[in-house]
Each structure stands twice: as structure tokens, then as C-alpha cells.
Specification:
The complex is a heterodimer of chains A (about 170) and B (about 325). By secondary structure, chain A is mostly helical. Chain A is built from seven helices and no strands. Chain A is globular and about 60 Å long. Chain B has about 325 residues and is an alpha+beta fold. In chain B, the strands form two sheets. Chain B has a five-stranded antiparallel β-sheet with strand order 5-6-4-3-7. In chain B, helix 7 runs parallel beside helix 10. The relative contact order of chain B is 0.10. Classes of the chains: A mainly alpha (about 170), B alpha+beta (about 325). Chains A and B meet through helix 1, helix 2, helix 4, helix 5 and helix 7 of A and helix 1, helix 3, helix 4 and helix 9 of B.
Chain lengths: ~170, ~325
């Protein structure tokens, strides 16, 4: 891959890839690192047939490999960070909006983590604009199963989020 | 009349993932079937809600993720190959220094006399020059030189100004360290050629302080100060014989662990900095690095030696290899 191709690839896909990874990992710095490694691997490829699917597949595999190494530690840290943000008392500098967003983020993280891995990845990829063929290629699934996977993932995500949201509101009301 | 649509088909239809002919059939059915129409409405709501939930995961709003500056191929290669290349440099430096010193020792043995100050300085200068050249060859095809690199290299080689302190930990600084030693060797050579009396006397002291013979490095004093370049000195301290070997080893291990941790942190910082704009050029005035110390155990003399000075660890390592060649300026 020459420099021009690499630059085009980077400018086209860096933002969605980092956002996908940030949503997947809950850690922006980690997401940036994985994205860098992904583009580095792309650089070594002579050419890419379906570049977006390839990039997301490689990034997903990198996360999976990394996660195998220290899954428990990272999950623990992520949860701790999310809980800390969720439970941290509001300071004078932080407006109500910021605190509310932090709570929503923590709830969203829990809801996303509650999804099955395949459903979660398919949903996150779809949110970044990958079509059904690209998702199927990146995840090694049949194209015909993607609709079902996405419908299940969306329903479960929304239901989980709403149930936690309701429970939280009831808890705050007491 | 088709059967009621399943969720997967509805989501695929809403996502535009069904073929045109099939899409028309689905659209016709939805228009006629109240139940499927309601399912489609629900699916639309799920799609919108899930997007909203996922957007809450972003540290920054969607499409506002600042795009990093595209690292060049050379910088990516640099980042990936940096560690391997540093090891290669160290190995190459070690081999060349050993070869240079061995050649000198062999020549001395063949002559049967202790070499003159000038010849030893020349050997050291040649050895260091060869090392510098090899490093440049190694670095050449991997990392394209920055616009300031030639100027820095010229400044270092001509020994008119010390290397930029900001690059002390980089490969460039490694070359700078070598250049500094080369400068010291050149200085010794010029001192000797000019017949500076004090220099000759100090050369004798230096020769007496350390003798590189078959049994290795043997120290005759407790402390010696050497000038590696104008205004920069290093101090060599011979610790008491095996005073507390275990303690020293522990300290070295702790220092190594600390250095490893520091290096890992630095790599992460460098990765993050890769997306930042390049830092401003270093100020013209040089600032000496903090005091650093390296320690090693001379297995032959059974002594712990330490070398400290306001140089980087890499520079101290280079100085260590050329200790017998350096000019001793002070003795305590």
C-alpha cells in the first residue's frame, strides 16, 4: 500500500474506527492505540479488497486478542471508572447536564456490556455505517443473519437501558 | 399475500439491506398489514433509541472525534522498529567498540610498547568514527532525516556546540553521544599534537589509573574525573570491594525495573504525541541533562564501578567504553 492509499484510508476511516473502538472498549486512549495498530497492519497489506470491513475486522480481532490477556483487569477498571463517574458527586463547576450525561454514559455502558459479543459488535459496526455484507465479512457471519442479529441487539440494548434507567429513577426517588 | 414480516427482515428493510424487487414487495405488505406496520414503527423506534444510547458512549459527540495527523510511513516504521533498532544500535556499538579496542591492544602487543598518546587517540577517533558511520547507515533507509538533522549532525561532528538536549533519549541523541566522545577523542588528539605539557602529564595519570590488560579493567584509585567534552565531566568511582554485592544488585534491578516502566510510559506518551503537531525546535542554548549514574561489576577485579555525570545513560555507556582513552582532569 502506498502513502496516498494509506492517507486516504486514514482520513476516511480513522474517525469511525476510533469511535467504534471507543464505544466497544470504553477507553479512548486504548481505542486510539488499537486504531493505530490497525492502520499499521493495513500499511503492510499490498491491497485491500473490502477495506472498511477489513479494518473493522482487524480492529475487532486486536481487541479480542488484547482482551484475552487482561480481560478481567480491564473490565474491572472500566467498571470502576464507570461507577466512579456515575457516583461521583457533582461539583460546583460541573453543571447538571454534565452529570446527567455521565450517568447516561454509565448506563449505556452497562447496557452495551450486557449484549452478547456478536450482537454488540454487529450493532457497533452498523452504527459506523458498515452495510450488511461488510458486517458479515468482518464477523464471519452470513449476510442473511445480520438483520436478525441487529434486531435482537437493538431490542435488547433498549430494553436493558430502559430497565436500568427506570430502576435508577426509582432508586433516586426513594 | 406474504406472511407477516419477521424482525430481521424489517430491520434489514429499514437498513436498506434488501434487494430492490424484494423491498417493493415488503413495502406493499407493510402498507396493507397493520400488524407489520406497527412492527416497522417499533423497529424504527429501536433503531433511533439504540443510536442515541450508543452515542452516549462517546467521550466526545459523534463526528467530533479529532482526527489525528496522519503519521508518515517513516514515522510508523520508526515507531514499530524503534525498539528493535535501538537494540541493533547497541549491539553494533558494542561490537565495533570491542573490535576497535581489540585491534589497539593487539597492535600494542605486536609493538611490545605502550602506545603513544597520539596513536591511541587516533585509534579511538577512528573507532568512534566508524561507529558513527555505521549508525548513520543503519538509520538511513528506515527513517527519513528531518530537516534539522543535517545541521545537528554537522554541529555535533564539528564539535562546536553540544547536541540538543531535547533529543537526548532519541536515536539522534545516541549519535550525539557518540559525537561527543568523538569530540573528546579529537580534543585529546589535538592536545597531544600541540604538545600541551599538562595534557601529557594527565595522559600519564589516565594511563596509570586504568590499564586494559588481559585481566581486564583494573582500577588503582577510588575516584577519577574525566572530561568528555568542554565543561562536561564524568566521575568514576570504585566502590569498596564487594561491600554489599547483594544490595547493589537489588538496587540495579530496581533501577532496571524503573527504567523499563519509564520506557513503557514514554512509549505510550510517544504514541499519543504521534498525533500532535511537531514540537517547536529546541532552544539554541543547551541545558545539561540531570545527573545520571551507571554501575557495573568488573568481574576480574571484583569491584563495583560507577560512572556519573550530566549525560544520558546512553552517553555514559559510550563514555564507559572509552574510559581508558579519555583525559583525566582531576583526581581526588
Amino acid at each position: 500500500m502506498n502513502d496516498a492509499d494509506l492517507e486516504r484510508l486514514f482520513r476516511t476511516y480513522h474517525v469511525p474506527l476510533v469511535r467504534y473502538l471507543t464505544r466497544r472498549l470504553g477507553d479512548r486512549d486504548w481505542a486510539e492505540e488499537v486504531a493505530q495498530e490497525t492502520f499499521l497492519r493495513a500499511l503492510r497489506q499490498p491491497s485491500l479488497k473490502n477495506e472498511r470491513a477489513w479494518l473493522f475486522a482487524v480492529a475487532t480481532n486486536l481487541v479480542r486478542d488484547e482482551a484475552r490477556k487482561d480481560a478481567r483487569r480491564r473490565k474491572h477498571l472500566t467498571l470502576l471508572a464507570a461507577e466512579q463517574r456515575e457516583e461521583s458527586p457533582e461539583t460546583e463547576d460541573e453543571g447538571e447536564t454534565t452529570a446527567e450525561r455521565a450517568k447516561e454514559r454509565a448506563l449505556a455502558r452497562k447496557a452495551v456490556d450486557a449484549l452478547a459479543e456478536r450482537d454488540r459488535l454487529a450493532l457497533l459496526m452498523r452504527e459506523e455505517g458498515l452495510d450488511y455484507h461488510e458486517i458479515a465479512e468482518a464477523l464471519g457471519l452470513s449476510v442473511g443473519s445480520i438483520g436478525t442479529t441487529l434486531s435482537r441487539a437493538r431490542r435488547r440494548l433498549v430494553e436493558m437501558y430502559e430497565s436500568m434507567h427506570s430502576a435508577k429513577k426509582i432508586g433516586e426517588g426513594k | 399475500m406474504i406472511q407477516h414480516l419477521d424482525d430481521g427482515t424489517i430491520h434489514a428493510w429499514l437498513d436498506g439491506a434488501v434487494r430492490a424487487g424484494e423491498s417493493d414487495v415488503i413495502a406493499d405488505h407493510i402498507a396493507e398489514c397493520e400488524q407489520c406496520g406497527a412492527a416497522v414503527a417499533e423497529a424504527r423506534g429501536l433503531i433511533a433509541a439504540s443510536s442515541r444510547i450508543l452515542s452516549a458512549l462517546d467521550d466526545v459527540p459523534g463526528n467530533a472525534v479529532p482526527s489525528a495527523t496522519l503519521p508518515s510511513r517513516a514515522r510508523w516504521n520508526e515507531a514499530r522498529a524503534g525498539r528493535a533498532r535501538r537494540n541493533l544500535y547497541l549491539r553494533a556499538a558494542g561490537v565495533l567498540i570491542v573490535v576497535g579496542l581489540s585491534a589497539t591492544v593487539i597492535r600494542q602487543q605486536q609493538k611490545g610498547t605502550f602506545p603513544s598518546r597520539e596513536s591511541s587517540s587516533t585509534d579511538a577517533a577512528l573507532s568512534v568514527k566508524a561507529l558513527d558511520t555505521s549508525v548513520q547507515k543503519l538509520e538511513g533507509p528506515v527513517a527519513a532525516p528531518s530537516p534539522v538533522a543535517p545541521a545537528e549532525r554537522t554541529a555535533v561532528n564539528q564539535a562546536k556546540s553540544p547536541p540538543p538536549v531535547r533529543r537526548m533519549e532519541s536515536i539522534g541523541s545516541r549519535r550525539g553521544a557518540i559525537g561527543s566522545v568523538s569530540q573528546a577523542a579529537s580534543k585529546m588528539k589535538s592536545d597531544s599534537a600541540a604538545g600541551v605539557g599538562a595534557g601529557n602529564a594527565e595522559a600519564d595519570v589516565a594511563a596509570a589509573a586504568f590499564v586494559l590488560n588481559d585481566s581486564g579493567l583494573v582500577a588503582s584509585g577510588d575516584t577519577a574525573v574525566y572530561e568528555v567534552r568542554s565543561g562536561v565531566t564524568v566521575t568514576l568511582v570504585v566502590d569498596s570491594v564487594a561491600a554489599d554485592v547483594r544490595k547493589m544488585e537489588d538496587r540495579v534491578s530496581a533501577a532496571e525495573r524503573k527504567a523499563t516502566k519509564s520506557m513503557m510510559s514514554k512509549q505510550i506518551v510517544e504514541k499519543r504525541a504521534a498525533s500532535a503537531p511537531p514540537p517547536p525546535p529546541p532552544p539554541p542554548s543547551s541545558v545539561l541533562p540531570p545527573m545520571n549514574t551507571i554501575r557495573w561489576f568488573d568481574s576480574t577485579s571484583r569491584r563495583w564501578l560507577s560512572l556519573k555525570g550530566r549525560l544520558t545513560v546512553g552517553q555514559l555507556d559510550s563514555v564507559k567504553a572509552l574510559l581508558p582513552r579519555l583525559r583525566r582532569v582531576e583526581s581526588r
